[in-house]
Design goal:
Blueprint: H1 9-34, H2 38-60, H3 66-93, H4 103-122, H5 132-153
Helix pairs in contact: 1-3, 1-4, 2-3, 3-4, 3-5, 4-5
Length: 154
């Protein structure tokens, strides 16, 4: 059973501004991750994937290919970054002037466009480069986030 909370117009306005600020902040976070040189990025993802791989090896008693596992963690991170972006983008669009029928498509397109610009940005970062596959993963992640929050808000 859903409970509706009635907020004043002033409170709603503050919440809407906060959501928009979180959206911009999250876009900056994504930009900062993408701006890391390849060695720094590998070191960061390795600091996450290596302990997980070691734990899996000790629990399941199988050898984990750390390079492939790290690759999967990196792609999963792309997905999750953009899933959060999709959620924030949709929440920010709720009180916008975008026609209701176009909100979903508009949010998906904006997230996909940001993914494209993010990959272009990586062309200028030492050791990194743009990858179409990452744009696809990012866009799928944002679609998942958008649909998840849209269904939750119904």
């Amino acid at each position: 059973m859903k409970t509706k909370i009635n907020l004043s117009d002033k409170t709603k306005n503050i919440v809407n501004k906060l959501i928009f600020m979180l959206l911009i902040l999250w876009m900056i976070v994504i930009f900062c991750f993408s701006h890391q040189p390849v060695n720094e990025s590998i070191r960061l993802s390795g600091s996450i994937s290596k302990p997980i791989a070691e734990k899996l090896e000790s629990i399941i008693k199988i050898d984990v290919d750390e390079e492939n596992f790290d690759y999967m963690i990196r792609k999963f991170s792309h997905f999750m970054e953009y899933m959060i972006l999709g959620i924030l983008m949709y929440l920010a669009s709720v009180k916008s002037n975008i026609p209701k029928n176009n909100k979903l498509l508009c949010c998906i397109l904006l997230c996909a466009l940001y993914a494209v610009t993010d990959e272009i940005h990586q062309a200028f970062v030492p050791g990194r480069g743009p990858k179409v596959f990452d744009v696809i993963i990012d866009t799928i992640g944002s679609i998942a986030g958008i649909l998840m929050i849209k269904l939750k808000m119904k």
